[in-house]
Design a protein that fits this description.
By secondary structure, this protein is α+β, with helices and mostly antiparallel strands. It contains eleven helices and 23 strands. Helix 4 packs antiparallel against helix 11 and helix 6 packs across helix 8.
Length: about 450
């Protein structure tokens, strides 16, 4: 039996755009796509409802047409001065197109004519749609994934809303996401191009996880120049794409210095360069100073310690190690004998410092590396920064203070993703790029719990 069209009343003024898009995605999940819309006027009694500026509309009737598969939707409320509107809207379209969504409709909501500056501000509602026939796989988030998912002993549902694909169940001692993808074809959702496991997913094309369209090729070059864990960058719970998307924004907007000065509290001096996973982007090679610093602490020059980020300023070096959903404290049975503490970095011996009761193996190495890098690059001080979820390792500062001899040239700071979110909100000036990044962070998912419920970076 043929399906009828669906008619939906959408409040485009008061509802959050993400909420509306999620609602539309669910409405289209059983095989529908965007059909059209018409604006509705608000009426009180016999009088049109107006504000003290020229109102256009608050809501619309939208209809969905039957389709071969369910669509996914993104929605945005855009408020910009007329002179900036086209530039900002084009940037939004470029971004949405790069992650598989196409502009479906642009609805004018308001025109604010009573502006203290005398300038006109336009407000538009932009609806973007991903359809199954789209060749570009969608970037997924909390609004396009099922809130709960059924997992049986034999199969695992695709996590995307409306998808009926069921993959065989991966077993911990058998097939998993770490093996060759040639062996995982049965686990690949053909519609959404993701490999499916009971708790998470991985994009078939790792660059699907990259937020900024102009950066996708750069990331590929970095992976060939030194980034060792590139193969995991397409995973839902891998922090590398998250680190890149956030720090690259801060770099482009020249906000790195302000971020660190705000959270660390002292002057860094002029920004010089940022090194992602050991790679100097200008040279597309492992940073020269890092090669030598690794050797000086006994490591292999090509396969030594690799902080996610090394930010170099006039006076300070900042080493950042980021975690998405895991602990900062990593341990080994025994720290290699070539590590020594000749400069008195630690209050305890290295074995105790690197233990699970100390600061862990990874942080221990970064303090040793930072000590040498500071001298090698002739800087006044260095800072090791741990970037984590807000509710992970809340005793980090206490642990570091008990293990490390912190002083005017050796510092530590614990930074959370929540603090970064607030910083971007405060400094973004409502730009499209800042709004894209904030939406991305708010929508970031962490896979499914044992009970089959979707987990997210933020509540």
């Amino acid at each position: 039996m043929d399906k009828n069209q669906k008619l939906i009343n959408v409040n485009i003024y008061s509802d959050l755009p993400e909420t509306t898009a999620h609602f539309l995605t669910n409405a289209a999940s059983d095989g529908y796509c965007y059909g059209g819309h018409t604006a509705q006027l608000n009426i009180i009694g016999d009088t049109n409802l107006t504000r003290n500026y020229d109102v256009q509309n608050d809501s619309c009737l939208l209809w969905l047409n039957p389709a071969s598969g369910g669509s996914l939707f993104h929605a945005w409320c855009i408020y910009y001065r007329q002179k900036n509107l086209l530039e900002e809207l084009n940037r939004l379209i470029e971004y949405e197109n790069s992650i598989g969504f196409n502009l479906t409709v642009l609805i004018q909501m308001d025109r604010f004519t009573k502006d203290v500056t005398g300038l006109v501000t336009d407000a538009y509602y932009a609806l973007f749609e991903w359809r199954p026939e789209n060749r570009i796989p969608p970037m997924l988030d909390r609004w396009t994934l099922k809130q709960e998912r059924i997992i049986t002993q034999d199969g695992v549902d695709c996590p995307v809303i409306g998808c009926d694909f069921v993959a065989p169940r991966m077993k911990a001692n058998d097939l998993n996401l770490d093996i060759s993808k040639k062996k995982l074809s049965d686990f690949l959702c053909p519609k959404h191009q993701i490999y499916i496991s009971p708790s998470t997913f991985e994009y078939a094309k790792p660059t699907t996880s990259i937020l900024w369209p102009e950066d996708k090729e750069t990331v590929i070059k970095i992976s060939k120049s030194g980034k060792r864990t590139w193969s995991r960058m397409g995973r839902e719970r891998d922090e590398d794409s998250l680190v890149w998307n956030v720090l690259r924004y801060l770099e482009h907007k020249r906000l790195l210095g302000k971020l660190f000065e705000d959270v660390i509290g002292f002057t860094l001096g002029a920004f010089e360069k940022i090194i992602y996973w050991s790679v100097d982007i200008e040279k597309m090679a492992v940073c020269d100073g890092l090669w030598e610093a690794r050797k000086m602490i006994g490591e292999s020059a090509s396969r030594g310690s690799e902080p996610d980020i090394i930010a170099v300023f006039e006076n300070v070096i900042v080493l950042i190690e980021a975690k998405l959903d895991s602990t900062v404290i990593t341990t080994v049975n025994s720290i290699p004998a070539y590590y020594t503490d000749e400069n008195g970095v630690f209050k305890k011996n290295l074995q105790d410092a690197a233990s699970s009761d100390g600061i862990g193996y990874e942080l221990t190495r970064y303090f040793l590396l930072g000590e040498v890098l500071r001298d090698k690059l002739c800087k006044k001080s260095f800072v090791v920064v741990s970037l984590t979820k807000d509710d992970v390792n809340d005793d980090l500062v206490t642990r570091v203070n008990s293990c490390v001899n912190l002083n005017s040239s050796r510092h530590y700071h614990w930074l959370t993703w929540g603090q970064l979110y607030s910083f971007i909100q405060k400094t973004g000036n409502n730009s499209i790029d800042s709004r894209i990044l904030l939406r991305y962070l708010k929508g970031k998912t962490l896979g499914y719990s044992i009970e089959g419920k979707l987990r997210t970076l933020f509540p």
